[in-house]
Amino acid sequence: MSEPMSLLGEAEKLDAADRLAAVRERFVLDDVTYLDGNSLGALPAHVPARVEDVVRRQWGELRIRSWEESGWWTAPERIGDRIAPLVGAAAGQVVVGDSTSVNVFKALVAAVRMAQEDGGTGGTGGTSGAGPVRDEILVDATTFPTDGYIAESAARMTGCALRPVTPAEVPGALGDRTAAVLLNHVDYRTGRLHDLPALTAAVHAAGAYVVWDLCHSAGALPVGLDEHGVDLAVGCTYKYLNGGPGSPAYLYVRRDLQPRFDSPLPGWNSHAEPFGMRPAYAPASGAVRGRVGTPDILSLLALEAALDVWDEEGVSVAAVRAKSLALTDFFLRCVGAYVPDGRVESVTPAAHAERGSQVALRCDDAGEVMKRLIERGVVGDYRAPDVLRFGFTPLYVGFADVERAARVLARTLAG
Ligand SMILES: *Cc1c(COP(=O)(O)O)cnc(C)c1O
Questions:
Q1: Are 213 and 333 within one domain?
Q2: How far apart are CA 101 and CA 320, in angstroms?
Q3: What confidence category does residue 299 fall into, taking pLDDT thresholds of 50, 70 and 90?
Q4: Which atom of ligand 1 lies closest to the CA of 216?
Q5: Percentage, residues of the chain above pLDDT 90
């Protein structure tokens, strides 16, 4: 057969021309074809030594002095400023800490509070504004479950009704009762990329606030938070940012909204005077306002080290996006060539403007197929009930990996 040889040959050529190919050496990888970086990014090789220094020297020797001398206290904002350019934000608007779930809660409740402050007597919020009563939250009906659970609780707490709608339905569902809209930038199951600029503009035209969850887009494609006037955003750091298992998430609060950001979790770390030990809460200004309690220093500093990869020569979000699209295009082509027609169906959009950095293939026996794929050294993941998910992290996945994954998939599907 000439087709497999020609795709393999093409993969080799593409790898040879790939300006990000050398970055793979910065990661700890083996013979496994790792296409699960959209769930847990691989380990950058320099991170263990940095973590060891944090543990042995900063904690072991300097102990309490490290809050000052090792920069522990300011790490949430400092590392936020390193993530900021990756999501198109100027400095001073991103703070790192807590999980994505917790940050969804902070952002969504704060968004509703702002909307209710703008408006009349809505929900349990403020009553100062002259606008309409805003007592509805729209949530992405296809969302990653945690966002939906938290939105439901946030709605109850703020006296709002929760309306699950697909992102495509959002423009038609918006109205003068809408307080806030919670959307996923990229659908975790299908890999569909939603139109952040257009949806943000539609939410604003209705006088509401938008919260974007960037878990599957940050580090994989341009987000443009400032450019598109996004209000609030959250995202995790252990997927395409390779921060490590459970590495802390981040929260973006647009600069002009920061004075109005009323956190539902006002901990001492976001107090204007954290060491004043005052009984009454007074919020700090700036991104610090998104903090809650003592930061998770070990995970935070592992993440900080992992972000060094983005300082490498030639590494940029634009370069990553270009390679990501080339990788997913090539994977779809290889699957088309190797897998018999009708055996799997791609649920990832073919249009680049609608595609994240993963390909999701549907087949009835997806759970069993993924188990056998993993046994054969191709690691993707399975999402119930019938989706095979393959994530492509351009910093360490190459075209030969893609060709191999499709070839092994075809063999596995053949039984
Ligand atoms: C991965 C992911 C999360 C994870 O939330 P955690 O609090 O880190 O467990 C949340 N939302 C989306 C859209 C995700 O893809």
A1: no
A2: 26
A3: very high
A4: 15
A5: 95
Among 105, 209, 238, 399, the one annotated catalytic: 238
Three-state SS letters, 251-268: EEECHHHHHHCCCCCCCH
Specify the DSSP element, H or E, that contains 378.
Answer: strand 378-379
Q: In which order are the strands placed within the sheet that holds 381-383?
A: 345-346, 358-362, 387-391, 381-383
239 counts as catalytic = yes
Domain that residue 215 falls in = 57-311
Q: How remote is the CA of residue 19 from the centroid of ligand 1, in Å?
A: 30
3-state secondary structure of 51: helix
What confidence tier does 119 reach under pLDDT thresholds 50, 70, 90? confident
Ligand 1 site, residue 147, Cβ cutoff 6 A: yes
Centroid of ligand 1 to alpha carbon of 57 (angstroms): 32
pTM: 0.96
Statement to judge: residues 324 and 294 lie in one domain: no
Q: Do 72 and 23 share a structural domain?
A: no
What per-residue confidence (pLDDT) applies to 47? Answer: 98
Partners of 163 in the β-ladder? 138
Tokens of 175: 């109205």
What ligand 1 atom has the least distance to the C-alpha of 99? 7
End-to-end C-alpha distance for the chain, whole angstroms: 20
Average pLDDT of the segment spanning 290-305: 98
The answer, yes or no, to whether residue 123 has pLDDT greater than 70, is no
Would residue 238 show up in a list of annotated catalytic residues for this protein? yes
Instruction: Establish whether 13 is a catalytic residue.
Output: no
Domain stop point among 311, 339, 360: 311
